[in-house]
Design goal:
The chain is an alpha+beta fold. It is built from twelve helices and ten strands. The protein starts with 6 loop residues before the first helix and ends in a 9-residue tail after the last helix. The protein binds flavin-adenine dinucleotide (FAD). The site of flavin-adenine dinucleotide has 23 residues, from β1, β3, α11 and α12.
Length: 386
Amino acid sequence: MDFDFTPEEEAFRAEVQAFIAEHKPKKGTPQEMATWHEKVREKRWVGFSWPKDVGGGGGGIAQQVILKEEMAKAKAPSLGTCFMGLAWVGPSIIEYGTEEQKQQFIPDILDGKYHWCTGYSEPDSGSDLASVKCKCERDGDEYVVTGQKIWTSIAMWSKWIILLVRTGQGESKHDGITCLLVPMDTQGITVRPIQNMSGGTMFAEVFFDEVRVPVENRLGEEGQGWKVTISALAHERSSIAEVTSLQRSLEGLRELARKSTKNGAPAAEDRGIRRRLASIDARIEAMRLNGMRFLTKQLKGEPVGAETSVNKLTRAELEVEIGELALEMQGSQGVLGAGSGAVPDRGKWQNHALNWPEVVIGGGTPNIQKNIIAERILGLPKDPEA
Ligand SMILES: Cc1cc2nc3c(=O)[nH]c(=O)nc-3n(C[C@H](O)[C@H](O)[C@H](O)COP(=O)(O)OP(=O)(O)OC[C@H]3O[C@@H](n4cnc5c(N)ncnc54)[C@H](O)[C@@H]3O)c2cc1C
């Protein structure tokens, strides 16, 4: 792989830098953020790698890398406000949706008009997602859904849900799963928020009581929802596997090391802490380069697969390490709560340390990533339990 950029690509970098200098929000007011989104969207830099005929940028790999690098370097707000829509719902609709579905959903996702949530996990189906039971029967031109989902992030603020249901049984548990796109205000849907250990409520239980969904809201074929899910999960893992937020955390960690003390000297001068910071830095860089592998595949139109699990796993490990190191550097203050007023960076590191389940468990646990890497990348025998 050649990591040098061509003169055209460097010209694109200059264009991105000039754009950021002109339009990056100064204070982050809602109005400024809306204008920023509009401007980025006008450039077709939201959905940059999506095909032009659905409103994406049709961008190439090197340009995508440059765009992300420059946005991260300048600490610019993320490209687009509809996270799940952009990260995996949109790509799944582009891959499996009908023309009508593409026209209905893709422009709104690119415009960041509303949030999507993801209804995969159930109380007894998490790691073993193919065992979903949420019942779905066909009744004329509609499906009727009855069952429960759990851990559904941002369900309470979402307008649509991408939902996995069981329409039948087949030879394997992967058969008979169907994927539906359902408006959250449909009669029969109840959302019950769950509080997490940092006190926030960002996920929920979602109950379905004879919820009627038009057949045209099915994504992909009936009974073939597993294929759609595998693709969406790979996109989810590739977005979780992004390095931008890790790079920002590392930068914050370095600043914290400069202003903290260890044994009476700046923590940044402590050899142990320096070694740990360097180790985190090196692994983020390895993740970035590995990320280019699956970006290359995506942009060549090849399906992204098991390789995203490597970065998902590494990110989980790094996020935990970053949280622990940040609290350690705070010494005895590390045990104080985020809102105590006596902790640095307005309690950001306390929240970071308590929010680890989001990146460690969300999108699949480390054990599951290891199974995927073992079986699908290293070709080891299948887990007899799975
Ligand atoms: C913050 C957060 C946000 C989330 N958001 C969403 C969302 O928006 N939508 C959604 O659908 N889900 C969401 N989830 C759910 C998440 O995907 C599941 O929690 C996850 O897949 C694990 O499933 P589980 O909780 O049922 O645990 P289980 O599957 O019961 O696992 C329990 C333990 O057993 C281990 N284990 C299970 N099977 C194996 C195996 N075969 N080999 C080795 N070890 C195994 C696991 O690694 C884990 O340690 C979210 C979770 C969190 C924490």
